[in-house]
Amino acid sequence: MCGIVGYIGNRDACPILMEGLDRLSYRGYDSAGVAILGGEGKINICKAKGRLENLTALLGEQPIVGKAGIGHTRWATHGEPSDLNAHPHTDFSGGIAVVHNGIIENHEALRKYLKQRGCVFVSQTDTEVVAHLLRTLYEGDMKTAIIKAMGMLEGSYALGILCDAEPNRLFCVRHESPLVVGAKDGEAFIASDIPAMLSHTRDVVFLRDKELAVLSAQGMEVYDQLGEAQTPDYYHVSWDLSSAEKGGYAHYMLKEIHEQPTALQNTFKPRNTGDPQGYGWLPVTAQEARALRQISIVACGTAYHAGVFGKYVIEKLARIPVMADVASEYRYRDPVIGTDELFIAVSQSGETADTLAALREAKQRGAKVIAICNVVGSTIAREVGEQNTLFTYAGPEIAVASTKAYMTQVEMMLLIAIALGDMRGTLSTQEAQRLRREIAALPAKAEKALLTEEKLQWYASTVSQKKHVFFVGRGLDYALSMEAALKLKEVSYVFSEAYAAGELKHGPIALLQEGRLVVATLTQPQLLEKSLSNLREIKARGATILALCREDMKDRVVGEADEIIVIPSADDLLAPLLAVIPLQLFAYCMAVARGCDVDKPRNLAKSVTVE
Ligand code: G6P
User: Fold this and answer.
1) Fewer Cβ neighbours under 10 Å: the N or C end of the chain?
2) Distance (Å, rounded) from C-alpha 27 to C-alpha 237?
3) Mean pLDDT, residues 520-549 taken together
4) Which ligand 1 atom minimizes the distance to the CA of 409?
């Protein structure tokens, strides 16, 4: 989704802005632009449709210099991707430039109002209204104009603002869209995400909702919507920029798949207290756990699939009914939820608009709300409260398709299931301890599962031209298949669909014929016989089968599939975490074999901060 950068200081702004935009490019975008306030006090703008290289080429032809500027990567919501619709946008005088993430919901009404006052619009974007609005409200002090505009703007926004009448200042403001600011040694920065400013400063401030910041070479001032000065909370970023770089891998996605053993370990460590019943890390008391009537897990995309996994394991170990739902549906269906119920929001970024809205619905109805989130300081973590957030320690995830974040979300689900089961007495403390020992052994097994890459590379090259792929499984393997199908379609654009294996004969089997590929996951011994019958049904229709199974189940599967990928033996509840690795690698290898832009698939955004 859109990215914002801003700089003010003593250096040339353009290279700093471009470096920042490059670091944000993983979020997905379709055009980019910069606005720079030159020494002569004029704002110069350069923008281009397409990749950042296009903008770089333009800037090469017509360089723009100056020591303050804003930049943007746009992911179109209002108006097609084009040079004209790319940000920054200016008011009619060209003296106020704006970059924006989010959606101005009342942009039509504002556009009408501004047109009546003589404003002429040149783009189709909702953002342009902000530039004109600020101009009409401006009476010599941009901070005051922004505060007035906040009272008129509806929707979500993170805005970076440049004003030629106040050349020594850079402004930004946020409402429901993230914004980070930092200041160091006579320079100040704004960004929609930390990597964009990490090479300049590690001490950052996450603006709170409806806060605005005024940045200058002297530092930063933060104000609330009434204009009252606020004391900013600094957050020290401990991770390195190298964790947001490719580190020798061909793609971020591959690097992040390979980081999963470490991510598993880092996420488990703070929850492995040594005390058999030490569940202090879980923001649910034993009393609350025993009183729970239902759990709702709500999320989007990959995080939703982690929720489906959570439904299976929590119901199994803690014997509580669990509902997993996608946030965009949940938020609008007047959900039935109340006290003695637990709502778990799952989000890698902590910024997904639908997940945020869904958790507000649950909160309003009296449920206890907690979150599983990968980003400290994100909106969801703050909204729920950091004490109610279970952080996954996957590290920064750059590839649009989520891999290591999913892995840690699924691990977190397992840890919650064990904790709740133990606290409710539905799982013995010994069994809980045994499962924790198994989790401690996972990283080493995950390393082994990564060794399937070579075979999958070869296999993908033989099936890369398939047009349809089905993923089937039962129980936890079905939850996994949903994620595997999403991964494949996201990165390789192959039409893929997941089905509960037992459901095949209720429709999808009509599509099975020679040439179709079915990827079957078999990690659950108690369901193996049933699954093998399904494989025979598939084979009888002439489709090709790639089966994924545990080492200790291999002998039963040989002869039932055209090709087999073997993962290390593991406990039934944990084996799916290993099986997901070859499934991710399969999607990755297919995308590479098909020549796709693996890390930035078309039309997709890493963080969907609008509805
Ligand atoms: C986007 C991303 C997905 C992600 C989903 C939810 O669609 O492309 O990879 O799973 O958003 O994001 P979240 O940050 O809430 O986990």
Assistant:
1) C
2) 20
3) 93
4) 16
Give the three-state DSSP class for 174.
strand
C-alpha–C-alpha distance, residues 26 and 17, integer Å = 15
Provide the token pair at 340: 């003695």
User: What does the alpha-carbon distance between residue 387 and residue 536 come to, in Å, rounded to a whole number?
Assistant: 50
- Rg (the chain; Cα; Å): 25
SS3 at position 289: helix
Phi, psi of 372 (to 5 degrees): -115, 120
> 559: exposed, middle or buried (C-beta count within 10 Å: 0-12, 13-18, 19+)?
exposed
Give the mean model confidence (pLDDT) for residues 127-141. 96
Bridge partners (DSSP) listed for residue 45: 35
Ligand 1: distance of its center to the CA of 43 in Å? 36
* Atom nearest to 405 CA in ligand 1: 16
Q: Which residue has the tokens 């009476």?
A: 139
Tens digit of each residue's pLDDT (9 = 90 or more) over 170-196? 999 999 888 999 999 999 999 998 889
Rounded Cα–Cα distance for residues 578 and 404 (Å): 12
**Coil vs helix vs strand at 284:** coil
CB atoms near residue 519 (< 10 Å): 27
Q: Is 602 helix (H, G, I), strand (E, B) or coil?
A: coil
Cis before residue 88, ω within 30 degrees of 0?
yes
Residue with tokens 């980019």: 32
Q: Within 10 Å of residue 581's Cβ, how many Cβ atoms?
A: 28
Q: CB of 578 within 8 A of CB of 247?
A: no
User: Which one, of 419, 400, 401, 392, lies nearest residue 262 by Cα?
Assistant: 392
Whether ligand 1 lies within 6 angstroms of the CB of 82 is answered as no
Residue 549 near residue 522, CB atoms below 8 Å: yes
> SS3 string of 329-397?
HHCCCCCCCCCCEEEEEEECCCCCHHHHHHHHHHHHCCCEEEEEECCCCCHHHHHHCHHHEEECCCCCC
Bridge partners, 534 (sequence order):
none
In percent, how much of the chain has pLDDT > 70? 99
- Tracing tokens 């935009």 back to the chain, one arrives at 21
Q: What single-letter amino acid sits at 481?
A: S
Distance CA 598, CA 492 (A): 8
Q: Which pTM was predicted?
A: 0.77
Summarised one tens digit per residue, pLDDT across range 95-120 is: 999 999 988 989 999 999 999 999 99
DSSP-based three-state secondary structure for 411: helix
CA of 529 to the centre of ligand 1 (A): 35
Provide the H-helix boundaries in 392-527. 404-424, 429-449, 453-463, 476-492
The finding on whether 301 has its CB within 6 A of some atom of ligand 1 is yes
Mean pLDDT for all residues in the chain: 93
Q: Which atom of ligand 1 is nearest to the CA of 302?
A: 10
